[in-house]
Amino acid sequence: MVSTVDGIPPWVIGVAGSTGATVANALVYPLDIVKTRLQVQLKKSNGTTGHAERHHYKGTWHAILSILKDEGCLGLYHGLPVSSLGTASTNYAYFYWYSILRTLYLTKIQASTTIAADLGLGTAAGALAQLCTAPIAVVTARQQTRPDGEKKTTFQTTRDIIDGPDGYAGLWRGIKASLVLSVNPAITYGAYQRLRDVLYSNKKNLSPHEAFLLGALSKCIATIVTQPLIVARATLQSHLSSDPEKKPFKSFQEVLKYIIAHEGVLGLYKGLTPQILKGLLVQGILMMIKERVELIFVLLFRHLRKRIPQMLMKPARSILG
Question: How many domains does the chain have?
Fold first, then answer.
């Protein structure tokens, strides 16, 4: 069994991170719907919104009230099943690969990591995770941005994407932006590790509130740095165009240029409030649960190591006796 330098198998770290992320995502999912819809709003040169929106949301609270009015409470949870699957798979893949890459680095290259090494390892793990789970993110974004009267099931949405002009490649729309955004979790967990080393260097296990605080703070830093690319990726994955007669955007550079031209630089940061709020809550809850799950597995492994030899000794004693 492959183990990390801390003695915890990679699959345990993957399960711990996946569990925390899935629970956190379900708790704050309405914020995910809101931030996605805010991010994909496009303005034309005359100041009106693009054809894809029935409403122009003025902010987080206005978006929540509008969705409740038009779609009811369930509107805030549309696409939750596939989003949960995507969250679970992405975070499992990220933590699994990060633990393996970090262990290889510490055992084969040098005994401690630098900030640059942490960012590099995190980016590599994030890229591997994105390649594996991008289709789920595309389907989720498409479901979240459909008007109320055009809601479709996960299977129908997937079928529509495959039957579209991009074919199966449509399931990987925005993958370039996603790969660049692999630096987001790298910044997040790199900052988390550094903050932990500085603030709690003498503690092996963090308390729930300490893990929550570090997770929230590190995610806030990463979100502010990468928000423009988050907006561009959401727009690409939603298959939007600047005008009904035009083809959907093809690259994140095209999206960024359009937004800057029609909305200014601040347009790259639309949806930042729910994005940060969601990130603070999700990352805080994720790291809080991850720390607890890892501790549970460590205690379970210790218990089994003691019990298994005892269980094997009993038959031997009965035979000898």
Answer: 1
Please report, for the domain that includes residue 100, its CATH number.
1.50.40.10
The answer to whether residue 212 is domain-embedded is yes
| DSSP string covering 228-245 | HHHHHHHHHHTT--SSTT
Residues 98, 78: Cα–Cα separation, whole Å: 31
Residue 311 lies in a domain: yes
Q: Residue 215 falls within a domain, yes or no?
A: yes
Residue 45's φ and ψ, nearest 5 degrees, are -65, -25
Q: pLDDT, tens digit, for every residue of 26-35? A: 998 998 888 8
Nearest by Cα to 113 from 98, 129, 127, 126: 98
Which amino acid is present at 159? R
SS3 263: helix
Q: Residues near 216 by Cβ (< 8 Å), separated by ≥ 6?
A: 279, 280, 281, 283, 284
Closest by CA position to 37, among listed 24, 54, 20, 17: 54
- Range(s) of the domain holding residue 60: 10-320
pLDDT tens digits along 260-298: 998 888 888 888 888 888 888 887 888 888 888 888 888
Quote the Cα angle for 120-216-32, to 5°: 95
Q: Do the domain assignments include residue 162?
A: yes
What's this model's pTM, rounded to 2 decimal places?
0.65
